[in-house]
Amino acid sequence: MALRIYNTLSGQKEEFQPIEEGEVKMYVCGPTVYDSCHIGHARSVVFFDVVYRYLKGLGLDVTYARNFTDIDDKIINRAGKLGVTAKAVAEKYIDEFHADMDALHVKRPDLAPKATEHIDDIIAIIQRLIDKGKAYPVDGDVYFRVTSFEGYGKLSGRKLEDMEAGARIDVDDRKENPFDFALWKAQKPGEPAWECPWGMGRPGWHIECSAMSSRLLGETIDIHGGGKDLIFPHHENEIAQSESAFDAPFVKYWMHNGFVNINAEKMSKSLGNTTMIQDVLKNYHSEAVRLFLLSHHYRSPIDYNEQAMKEAAGNIDKLYALLRRIAEEFGNLGILRLQAFNNKSGELFKEFCAGVEDDFNTARGTAALFEALRAANRAIDEMTSENAFESKVEIDILLVDIFKMAGILGILHENPYSYFDAKKERAGVDEDRVAALIQGRADARKEKNFQRADEIRDELTAMGVAIEDGASGTTWKMME
RNA sequence: GGCGGCUUGGCCAAGUGGUAAGGCGACGGCCUGCAAAGCCGUUAUUCUCCAGUUCGAAUCUGGAAGCCGCCUCCA
Length: 480
Known about the structure:
15 strands, RNA-binding, 4-stranded parallel β-sheet, elongated
């Protein structure tokens, strides 16, 4: 099987061939750190986290960079409102970003550069572009000369002539062409600024990615990703800058994820439905969030709503319930989990990979995950003293597959007992009272007083507690 | 105005020209004192509509309708 990736540049799926055998250089546009992250950021970051995990799983030597835009109009505005420095705003939200993404079990990228740490690189590229006649300074600003780059529009499929007709853009007489964009912005009073050959100022938005990508990963990289909205103008402009500066292709595979809608509406500040990761995590387990995000194809829009989240949360519950069941039957879940990294995988993991290899179709992959879940439960259901050995072998293979899939999806990090205990704690029920009621019910059942037993169960139900009678006694959990 | 995308069962959602994955829900069964959980089975002759190409189309082509995104900061 070969990995195929939909390349925005070509508009089709292409077989993935790294530029250097066995190595992958990947860059993903990170956040502008002026506010908390929302579920849309989570989608992008979680998706590319899966790309990273999968490529590493293939044994490739992946260098993954994800930047922070830590100097920008929005940050400066925010700082002005709060009466603090832009740096303070950026630092606060970088910390928040890390906290959010750690909570979502996102692996840290190899490199997390900040724009302000690469001002020299930025200035060097701008100088180069000016020297080559691709950019021009005006009153301390520097603009990229869009008409100097023949391929302008190749990523977004736009032509300069077409855009000019209906475009709503600022008319700025100082620009040669309305689509020329700022590489450098002259300092305004009170703004943070750096010294450069054109006077004090700060970088424009697009140039930082060209600078950091080329400095950290090379002039041509394998994968560059981000949200669909970045295709134009951000990534289009990055291509123009980088390819003009280095006379080499900038990126081999462009990948863009789709948006998250909220209850079938576009998420936007004006609608007031911006859904922050922190708030989502108050209501749902982080792995439910990941499973929700990954059970849809990354390029399609997805709808965040209560039903979808409850479904995902329910499925995470089922997976942990299986893990608990296996731990109860066989013990040593930790050892079984370790085996996932050494043992050969079974058919279902191969099926899972077949999905993921097809343009990271994790939605297709989850079908294999649920099949493994069902097969493992069935094997335990059907286990007898005669077939115990065969069953154990079968369950082992299924469990290894499940852990391997979970390792790529980034779920099932917890011990199942602590997972369910944490749920009980979050629900805030009186556990001693539940234990007492269950004991009372057990006594009633012993005396065949089923009416009393059912009364007690009703009482538990009213508390939101669901009970399950098993071979080794009664267990309970919180109902959804 | 320009560019792009989407329309698959009650809901969500895969589907790469060869005869509709998976999840949720619903219904029936096994299990259970009864339940729950788990398992088994049933739940789209059909993929918005119309025409065409083909031995064969949800998948390709043309047309129609509806929905959505981008073109402005945005994941």
